[in-house]
Structure formats: C-alpha cells, structure tokens
Amino acid sequence: MVDFIIGLAVTLNSEYLGIQYLLLCADPKSVGFYKKLGFQKISNMEAIPRELWNQPCVPMSIKLFKG
Question: Which band of pLDDT confidence, cut at 50, 70 and 90, is reported for residue 58?
Fold first, then answer.
C-alpha cells in the first residue's frame, strides 16, 4: 500500500501538483519498516500536528525526487 501511495504521489506530481515530500505519522513499532522504504525521522516534532490519537507517533518523511 505504501508503494501505491508513493507511486500515486509521483504521478500526481508529474501531472498536476508539486509534491516533493510525503509525511506520515508512524507508530513507534513500525519505524524500522518505514526506514527500509526510505523514510527518515523528522527532527522537528512540530511538523505534524498532534491530536489525541497520534500523540506517540514518530513523524517521518520521504523526498520523492532527489535534487
């Protein structure tokens, strides 16, 4: 599913939008999984708004295009 979303973002970027990064709020137990896909932890914890349901999350991002 993650590969599908990344592919969709790349397609949308090339056809309609200017998407450079994908952000996600990872469950702490899944950080290793996302790192294997190329995501990195975001050091600025204010990058993702905190709600009650995502307080323990680990903000992560992936840059879609190098450069």
Answer: confident
Beta bridge pairs of residue 47: none
Q: Give Cα 17 distance to the centre of its chain.
A: 17
Question: pLDDT-based confidence at 24, cuts 50/70/90?
Answer: confident
Range of the domain at 26: 2-43+54-63
Contact yes or no for 63/21 (Cβ under 8 A): yes
Per the domain annotation, does 48 fall within a domain?
no
Q: Kindly tell me if the per-residue pLDDT of 61 is higher than 80.
A: yes
- Give the residue among 46, 44, 35, 41 at the shortest CA–CA distance from 2: 35
